[in-house]
């Protein structure tokens, strides 16, 4: 299938065809964390979104150079270090390690390059010097500021009008800037703060300059994709464009990808509101794949609202996929025969055969994971129906088709980090976790179900109903279906 990946470019506001500058090689830069605290669900969405993007591009046969930075010097880092009586360097490095712990728990692949801001001070100084040389930046009181008026296209990413922004700006008392819209590239050091030598005196870099310097070093003056959250569009990414294009005289980035915000029960996440959820808070209660399923059930550009009911829906959806995989894994090829006629219709065969192309069609359309999940469920529905129609001695070709389809399903779901575990083990573990709070164990539940099955065979309906009610009192709900009796834990 010809590759036709179209991505929504924030710069143009349209979906555009991905056309790497270097044929077959995508260069991607994503803004990473400011390392002063534990990561929250917003960080999880960002990391998982770009983890998915990189996995998909590589699956499609493209080489990807993925760079994601660490901001390890910043006002917030300095303030938190002072609160805790430690150095900014120690605090930043500690939370970088905590970040890795969270990402490993989520199963996020490491980027190819993970530069730290403090390790690239010379590159930042060189970029600032070039801007000063071109009169696009100026020193003032030990600081250095970018001249926003020197870049006529300022505001092109965010869609903001510079004149409107100027009209709404106010100049603070004793401000060293020539104009209120000018932004800092280099900050003079204050007593007790980390500092580096520079042509303008001891100080440290401003936030925006680090990404311009590091992306240039590792990806070049112009590269394919720059990503981050919508909150970074202005001023961070807007300022990156102004700095980079001002200094280099070239287009900075061809395509900009921004993911949507995360809310908690329709409210902005905030510690003051008591709805601040760290990745660890969530993983204490949910398997990492459930969080992944939840995040990818919504298109990356859309708002994502976290709630217990949404996570329960994600749990049910993921378990449905695993149940199908487990059931087909259990099919024994030794019980098949080459003499039994195939029950697969041409329509079923064609549908299963189109699984990968349908998945690609969804994902080529701006990484539409929600639509791709719909393809998974449609396939599972077909697989379950075929499996239920198998006789006692099914056709070997039918079993082979089912198993091949499941292998393809697993491979494609793995791009979202789903279906990575042994299905039977995953489901057994999930059941153990779910019944832990129900004052009963799995063995007792299975024993009572077996007793009930025997009672129904003997037409002992009274005892059968008694068992159902006994289990229901412990929030264990029985479901009788074509595959026999199954059970779930009621959550409401």
Q: Radius of gyration over alpha carbons?
A: 28 Å
CATH superfamily heading of the largest domain = HUPs
- Biggest sheet descriptor: 4 strands, parallel
Tell me roughly what share of residues is in helical segments: 40-55%
EC number: 6.1.1.16
Subunit structure: Monomer.
InterPro entries: Cys-tRNA-ligase, Cys-tRNA-synt_Ia_DALR, Cys-tRNA/MSH_ligase, Rossmann-like_a/b/a_fold, tRNA-synt_1_cat_dom, tRNAsynth_Ia_anticodon-bd
GO molecular function: ATP binding; cysteine-tRNA ligase activity; zinc ion binding
Description:
The protein is α/β, with parallel strands linked by helices. The chain folds into three domains: 274 residues, HUPs (Rossmann fold), CATH 3.40.50.620; 118 residues, Anticodon-binding domain of a subclass of class I aminoacyl-tRNA synthetases (Four Helix Bundle (Hemerythrin (Met), subunit A)); 53 residues, no CATH class. It is built from 17 helices and 15 strands. Strands 4-3-9-10 form a four-stranded parallel beta sheet, sandwiched between helices. A hairpin with a 2-residue loop joins strand 14 and strand 15. Helix 2 crosses helix 3 and helix 10 crosses helix 15. The protein is elongated and about 90 Å long. InterPro entries: Cys-tRNA-ligase, Cys-tRNA-synt_Ia_DALR, Cys-tRNA/MSH_ligase, Rossmann-like_a/b/a_fold, tRNA-synt_1_cat_dom, tRNAsynth_Ia_anticodon-bd. Monomer. GO terms for molecular function: ATP binding; cysteine-tRNA ligase activity; zinc ion binding. It is found in: Cytoplasm. Its main location: cytoplasm.
